[in-house]
Amino acid sequence: MENFNFYVPTTVHFGKGQIENLAASVKQFGGSKVMLAYGGGSIKKNGIYDAVTNELKKADIPFVNCDGIKPNPPVADVRKGIKIYRENACDFILAVGGGSTIDAAKAMAAGVCYHGDVMDLMADGKGEIKEAAPLASVLTMAGTGSELDMGGVITGEKTHKKHTIMHPFLYPKFSILDPAYTFSVPEKHSMAGCFDAFDHLMECYFVAGSETTDVQNMMNEGVMRSIVKNAPLLLENPENYDARANIMWASSMALAGFQFIAGKKGSNWPMHAMGHELSSLYDMTHGITLALIAPAYLEFTLEKAPEYTWLFANFARNVFGVSEANNELVAKKGIEKVKEFTLTLKMPKNLKEAGVEKDKLEYLAEKATEWGNIGAICKMEKAEALEIYRRAFE
Ligand code: NZQ
Ligand code: ZN
């Protein structure tokens, strides 16, 4: 196993009514004037805005709103938040929403402590995060794991490229996870969130170095299995509290401290890199892009790296319960199961059905690999990415 550092400083308040911890937690982390960051208004309809602001008012904590953060958050929304925070002399950021809101809040937290443009602080930028404002989250949608990790994804303005911002200072100080808050998430986003979490687990599972990481692999398989079990229950009944709770906790666990990729040889998250380009070009929902890419990616990877057939076979047996004896056959059946799972979640069948134009595939492959090889267990440059987009097309 490779060396690794493991660090997750976020306090989680999980369950019904945990919003009652909000005000004390804000004060515990030094918040005396809060900027409330949220999205397009769903929290005003489902009562979460009132629940949050009532807690702040009861504790005499003043707050200002930073609303309108869009999905696949554009940097303009981040800049707006930085301005509001500074103009109102806030000292704490509370993100109330899904991954887009929390990610934007993370970039704001870094941006308010930096004198240049916030884009400098992205992973590929020229700046450095030396400080960040304290931030916390009230999660309203499960999937990304942003509530328990130190990363965020922000859409740049020129080519709409998605950039990563990442630093230990960007872990939320605390996250309030009330599964009942996710009852109102529309089916499409609930299912996309389930697949996003499942895909995070696969990105951490199909990675070179997995030969030696038994704990990571086996815990990961268990979390994947819980998603395969609970996602269809949500589809049947969006107000199934325990299914919501399991999906929420599985999503958080998937990326908590990047625990399931720890000790492996590292990865550039190939399915995410390819999916992000679909979001950039078509503003497509993140989890849907992954469902479109994953089966073709896995099929291609198994062909190119047959030495990892054992890993694909373990996945098929331990996540989907495939019971054949022959490893090669089982490995392929596991990939078929992933495809079936995407259809169970009502994801589009292929890129064509999702509205992608065939003549854009080359551009997508070019952009997905513009910073180099994105492979996790086999080389993944432009030609390989193009082959995967083609297989995913129809
Ligand atoms: O805009 P609002 O009103 O918040 O509505 C949202 C949005 O329309 C709605 N929604 C959220 N909670 C709701 C609700 N509607 C009704 N009731 C509720 N309780 O759902 C829609 C989607 O929300 P969004 O935050 O965009 O979804 P998600 O959580 O999937 O976040 C996606 C973003 O996260 C990034 C993605 O790239 C994408 O930009 N990711 C962040 C990661 C991270 N920080 O570690 C990792 C992921 O791989 C991912 O890349
Ligand atoms: Zn994701």
Describe the model.
This protein has 394 residues and is of the alpha/beta class. It has 2 domains: 171 residues, Rossmann fold, CATH 3.40.50.1970; 208 residues, Up-down Bundle (Dehydroquinate synthase-like, alpha domain), CATH 1.20.1090.10. It is 47% helix and 10% strand. It is built from 14 helices and 8 strands. It has a 6-stranded parallel beta sheet with strand order 1-8-5-4-2-3, with helices on both faces. Strands 6-7 form a two-stranded antiparallel sheet. Strand 4, helix 5 and strand 5 form a beta-alpha-beta unit. Helix 6 runs antiparallel to helix 7. The structure holds 5,6-dihydroxy-NADP and zinc ion. The site of 5,6-dihydroxy-NADP (NZQ) has 36 residues, from helix 5, strand 6, helix 6 and helix 10.
* Shape designation: globular
Number of separate helices: 14
Strand content: 5-15%
Name of the CATH architecture of the largest domain: Up-down Bundle
Helix and strand content put the structural class at alpha/beta
Largest sheet: 6 strands, parallel
CATH homologous superfamily assignment of the largest domain: Dehydroquinate synthase-like - alpha domain
* Bound molecule kinds, no repeats: 5,6-dihydroxy-NADP, zinc ion
Q: Order the strands across the largest sheet as they lie in space.
A: 1-8-5-4-2-3
Roughly what percent helix? 40-55%
Summary keywords:
single chain, 394 residues, alpha/beta, Rossmann fold, Dehydroquinate synthase-like, alpha domain, 2 domains, six-stranded parallel β-sheet, two-stranded antiparallel sheet, 14 helices, 8 strands, 10% strand, binds 5,6-dihydroxy-NADP, binds zinc ion
